[in-house]
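ARCHIVE CARD
CATEGORY: sequence design from structure
SOURCE FIELD: tokenized fold
FIELD CONTENT:
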């Protein structure tokens, strides 16, 4: 069964939204995600800009500035809610793991 779009977030989606708690542009997001995850997660420009466009359409983020080709974004209340729901889903998975994997 396919997942409903945005019912769960990919790791890349999750980290992009975390970065956008404060206004930043695409290059900042790519650098922040790599730093935040010690390089475990990287996001290429094609993936990033496709997701940013989708997030704007969904109302999860909004564009805050345009300077030539540089665009900046910030999280909206709807985006905060999606991010919080994903955080709660991930916490529930950790609890399930801990309950069921004890030796």
């Amino acid at each position: 069964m396919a997942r409903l779009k945005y019912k769960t977030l990919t790791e890349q989606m999750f980290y992009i939204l975390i970065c956008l708690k404060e206004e930043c542009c695409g290059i900042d997001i790519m650098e922040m995600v790599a730093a935040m995850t010690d390089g475990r997660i990287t996001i290429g420009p094609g993936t990033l800009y496709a997701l940013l466009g989708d997030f704007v359409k969904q109302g999860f983020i909004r564009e805050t500035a345009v300077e030539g080709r540089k665009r900046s974004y910030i999280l909206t209340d709807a985006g905060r809610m999606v991010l919080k729901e994903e955080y709660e889903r991930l916490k529930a998975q950790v609890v399930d793991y801990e309950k069921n994997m004890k030796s």
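CARD ANNOTATION: The mean pLDDT is 92. Residues 46 and 52 are 10 Å apart (CA to CA).
SHELF: design records, drawer C
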